[in-house]
Amino acid sequence: MNIHSVFSTDQGLEKAGITIDYGDFQVRIARAGGANKEFSKLLDRLTKPYRRAIDTGTIDLKIAERIEHEVYARSVILGWEGVTDSKDKPIKFTPEACMQLFEDLPDFFIDIRQQAQTVVLFRAEVQEGAAKN
Question: Has residue 133 got a pLDDT over 90?
Fold first, then answer.
């Protein structure tokens, strides 16, 4: 296995997204970084007012969390199907609804962040293999 086979990704998948199947619901995500330039641009724009606090490690954790949630809701999560509230009422995808779910269900956000940063998921051959299964 050479370095290219370990680290190369499909830039089209990084932007167009992949589907994470949770069984009863699915979430379509783009990569957090890589060819998803919207992620980097939005992160840069939202953190700009807090650069000094970020650099010195003094940013309020609630502010940092809110920024991260917004960046993921607006540039990583592309949509979902089958997502419902606790009473099984469908939740239409909007960045605001997504941010609310991130706040209500922190482990959902943690999982999405982990998936969006997992380089191997954005390889065409991995997605082709998943489609066959």
Answer: no
Q: In what order do the strands lie in the sheet with 26-29?
A: 18-21, 26-29, 77-81
Buried b (16+ CB within 10 A) or exposed e, 43-72: beebbeeeeeeeeeeebeeeeeeebbbbbb
Q: For residue 12, what are its two tokens?
A: 């089209």
* Tokens 């954005």 belong to residue: 122
Report the distance separating Cα 55 and Cα 76, nearest Å: 24
Q: Are strands 77-81 and 26-29 parallel, antiparallel or unpaired?
A: antiparallel
Task: Output the pTM of the full model.
Answer: 0.90
Q: In terms of pLDDT, which residue wins out, 112 or 8? A: 112
Looking at residue 17, its pLDDT comes to 96
Taking the C-alpha atoms of residue 50 and residue 64, their distance in angstroms, rounded to an integer, is 9
Average pLDDT across the chain, whole number? 93
CB 16 within 8 A of CB 35: no
Please name the residues in contact with 101: beta carbons below 8 A apart, sequence gap of 6 or more: 83, 91, 108, 109
8 A C-beta contact, residue 44 and residue 71: no
